[in-house]
């Protein structure tokens, strides 16, 4: 039986063991070989179970398929899986073995599945498949890493010891969710499956393999403990998730005031809290702002009163003129804890801003009353030190600002407003809350506000964001006492939630931009084609057949040529040359030279026209009929006969009246524009004249127009419709063609697209409101400083009342 003193001797001297093993030709090492054996046995068994259930899953879906085509896809998928199952399982095993080999040699790169960005100008089918793959894999990995964070962390640490003390992360662990998913993804590429069937297999992999990883990790940990690898470490989260204790090094303790900005705070922004980058310029500005804030707060007290441990200016006094004792930090925090539980119960169903605002105003008085009861000495009374009074007032002003901040929707304001008491406890425990941008509680509030800025009922129909914010708020209200690790844990979880949804919304944004870009290219090409045709026929009176050819199929052919080849191409120039020659060919021929030229030109025109008609998918029967009609027209023209002449507007109007619609099968389409309408017909029928309207101009000096022009991609705005409904949208993309703005909601779905002029009009009317981009906490501190300055100036100008302290 071993004694506690024997345990350190049981820890494996892994470097020596690996050296001996490598000398015998075993590169993996005994323990890593053990882990590999456990992993291959368990994972291969799980994958085998997966494939045994593929048939049933696909057959069930085939039975419920909405069409024969979809049903065939599922049956084809079943056959493909049966045919290549053994190949895929073998490739998967080879992938796992290679991962372990790379890991043993130190060559395993961290696997972080991300949503790939298309490299081409558009989104191809292959790009869509890769994106769908990436989303499925990323979702599986993220879910598994969150669920298994504790046991996976222990495996990481022990594997790190095995490989000589190197750091092993989730993404570089050979049995981590990311490498396993990537290995399966590579193996599944052997199947020739459509996206839908492949995603079903990924779901089955998540159900049967990812959900079975915990027993694998438990077995690996147990075997390594049995071998003496870090037997003493317990179940604990990694540092990034656990936080760094109740207070950071050097933080003022409860009841102490923070040192003046810049004093006694080495590395204030750089090392006090994890997960935040250090910006020296921002840190200096923050220190200056915090110093100003402290001075303004101190100026409210009589000289000599503002200091740690001195009698405060707030509290119930006793009968005599002696000093009123201050509440101890313990009593103050105890009072806050009781008040926190009471407030949490009272506001569990309070969702309005008015309820939250009322609570903000009452907290200070209720806090002192609760502290009196805890002190058990109501006769003499208690007071709060000036430093703590300043903190109470500062947190109160912070939450008053939050409840008045137009950046946040009222529903989010009411929810965040419930955090006042926990944040008051944090501020009393650690004055760095207001002095440092990197403080986790500050970052959590900013993160909630930034995500909440994008919230609307329309963009969060499944309530995922609302429920996530609500979960964070309720966790802090319920669980936070004096340990900042809870705040850091909630911050990490919320940032991960936001990151996951951001990736999905970015994909939707990209697609919305592609659709809008394609629509704009088409619109521009149609305008240009119409301009070229109308320039040539204008108000000319020509034979109706000539107008019909140019204003319909040839205008559409110009559109396709522009989209495919551009304005500078030979195809475009040849198409315009045909239009010119076609118009000339239709004019009366009075000389033999003109008739000779026409006879020579006609075969070329016929060839070019047939090519154009074929390009725009003209029906063969229609092509033959048109060619016959043109042949008769040119015969009459060469014979010197007269025929009916009309303008383009007249011909297009006649066509519109002659073509039946669903609503009126007798009359035509004088109203509205069918999808098959050519660009020339669209302009003529919509405007009543052959003109193309130029885009509206914007006054350079207009304030609203300047604000609209200065918007950047990523800026948020709130639109208000005529019924008062509000929709929040982000500027996602600015068209390089028309400079129009594309706005999307938080899910990346298109809300609208607007010109600068239209947006300027809405900003001027107040039906569009720009939202602030500065973080909530920074804006709040600026507003508080301005408010205190105004109060200080007013008190300096007005003489104090008799018997009232200045």
Describe the protein's architecture and organization.
- This is Thymidine phosphorylase.
- It comes from Dokdonella immobilis.
- With about 800 residues, the protein is mainly alpha-helical.
- Among the domains are: about 220 residues, no CATH class; about 160 residues, no CATH class; about 70 residues, SH3 type barrels.
- About 60% of the residues lie in helices and about 5% in strands.
- It contains 29 helices and 7 strands.
- The strands form 2 sheets. The protein has a 5-stranded antiparallel beta sheet, with helices on both faces.
- A hairpin with a 6-residue loop joins strand 4 and strand 5.
- The chain is flat and about 120 Å long.
Please, what is the average pLDDT? 77
> Which of globular, elongated, flat, extended, rod-shaped describes the shape?
flat
Rg over alpha carbons = 37 Å
Q: What order do the strands of the largest sheet run in, or round the barrel if closed?
A: 6-5-4-3-7
Number of helices, counting only DSSP H or I runs of 4 residues or more: 29
Low-confidence stretches: 1-27, 115-126, 235-272, 304-322, 661-675, 688-695, 801-806
Q: Proportion of β residues?
A: under 5%
The N- to C-terminal Cα distance equals 77 Å
Give a short synopsis of this structure.
InterPro entries: DUF1631. This protein is mainly alpha-helical and about 800 residues long.
How does the SSE layout of this entry go?
Layout: H1 7-10, H2 14-23, H3 30-63, H4 68-104, H5 125-147, H6 149-162, H7 177-188, H8 195-208, H9 213-226, H10 239-242, H11 280-298, E1 314-315, H12 329-346, H13 353-375, E2 383-384, H14 386-402, H15 410-417, H16 420-429, H17 432-435, H18 440-453, H19 464-479, H20 484-537, H21 544-565, H22 570-586, H23 592-615, H24 620-638, H25 648-658, H26 679-687, H27 703-709, E3 716-720, E4 726-734, E5 741-744, E6 750-754, H28 756-765, E7 768-770, H29 776-797
Antiparallel strand pairs: 1-2, 3-4, 3-7, 4-5, 5-6
Helix pairs in contact: 3-4, 3-8, 3-9, 4-7, 5-7, 5-8, 6-9, 11-29, 12-13, 12-16, 13-14, 13-15, 14-16, 14-29, 18-20, 19-20, 20-21, 20-22, 21-22, 21-23, 22-23, 23-24, 27-28
